[in-house]
């Protein structure tokens, strides 16, 4: 019983911490300073819950406290959860920044296990699909990979820039890209390596520009990628939407006799626009939108 109470207290502290502002991300020490006392958190949560229950009409006698539908989790940002769902399902489009109130939520999602688990489910499906393919034996099957937030992660940059709540700054983002330090997204790399073992050739197709080729290659190699067939970068100065540019490049692949058996990216603009590929896979990305 004592253990259960202790676990509940810890949970409440974590829930309360998730609503802290962005300064809580700067390091473990500053995060500790942001935490209110457990006693305060418990009392405040209990008080809020009492108010909510008494003022809201009940539609069911049973009222969950914990879990994704619970009253406590609402305090942890469930409205942001709904916002994220709308983003991932392409119901929400053309947004420029993450809502300021969701910085804590998106930060927890990205840095915690949730993002990785969601990515794993996507990649598990992609691997299972790839294993069912009957290849022609002529080496023409290719799989298109996006790079940013698909093959490499820019999370170190976004963790220092409000997790998408601040307007995109091309200058500082490109400075980060030129460091060539973006870490791998391990789930995607698992798919990449699996495809090579099956005889399917990976093709990188990215919105990064041609002048970033050398650093992009270095970054990919440093992070354990090798054996790709092509790295397609956007010509400098090209004025085209992501959908037009990427679908055009896929069309060229197809015209050259390649069969695009799969296509994976974090943006809808990676996977929309014919020819999309025989099957598409959408990785999660609540940090930014590219139309
Ligand atoms: Mg991307």
From TrEMBL:
Keywords associated with the record: Signal
One Pfam family recorded for the sequence: Acid_phosphat_B
Coiled coil regions, renumbered to chain: none
GO molecular function: acid phosphatase activity
UniProt signal peptide: 1-17
InterPro entries found in the cross-reference section: Acid_phosphat_B-like, Acid_phosphatase_pln, HAD-like_sf, HAD_sf
PANTHER family with a match to the protein in the record: ACID PHOSPHATASE-LIKE PROTEIN, VEGETATIVE STORAGE PROTEIN 1-RELATED
Designated name of the protein: Uncharacterized protein
């Amino acid at each position: 019983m004592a253990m259960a109470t202790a676990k509940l207290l810890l949970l409440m502290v974590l829930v309360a911490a998730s609503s802290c502002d962005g300064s809580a991300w700067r390091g473990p020490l500053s995060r500790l300073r942001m935490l209110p006392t457990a006693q305060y958190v418990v009392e405040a949560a209990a008080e809020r819950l009492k108010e909510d229950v008494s003022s809201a009409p009940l539609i069911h006698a049973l009222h969950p406290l914990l879990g994704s539908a619970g009253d406590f989790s609402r305090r942890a940002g469930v409205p942001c959860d709904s916002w994220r769902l709308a983003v991932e399902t392409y119901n929400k489009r053309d947004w420029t920044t993450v809502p300021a109130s969701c910085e804590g939520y998106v930060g927890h999602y990205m840095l915690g296990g949730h993002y990785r688990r969601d990515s794993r489910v996507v990649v598990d499906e992609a691997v299972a699909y790839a294993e069912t393919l009957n290849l022609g034996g002529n080496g023409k099957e290719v799989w298109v990979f996006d790079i940013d937030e698909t093959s490499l992660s820019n999370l170190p940059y976004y963790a220092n820039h409000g997790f998408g709540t601040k307007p995109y700054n091309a200058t500082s983002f490109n400075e980060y890209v030129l460091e060539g330090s973006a870490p791998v997204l391990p789930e995607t790399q698992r798919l990449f390596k699996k495809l090579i073992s099956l005889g399917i050739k990976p093709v990188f197709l990215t919105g990064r520009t041609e002048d970033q080729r050398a650093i992009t290659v270095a970054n990919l190699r440093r992070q354990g990628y090798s054996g790709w067939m092509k790295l397609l970068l956007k010509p400098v100065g090209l004025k085209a939407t992501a959908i037009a540019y990427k679908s055009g490049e896929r069309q060229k692949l197809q015209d050259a006799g390649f069969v695009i058996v799969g296509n994976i990216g974090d943006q809808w603009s990676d996977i929309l626009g014919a020819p999309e590929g025989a099957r598409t896979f959408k990785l999660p990305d609540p940090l930014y939108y590219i139309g």
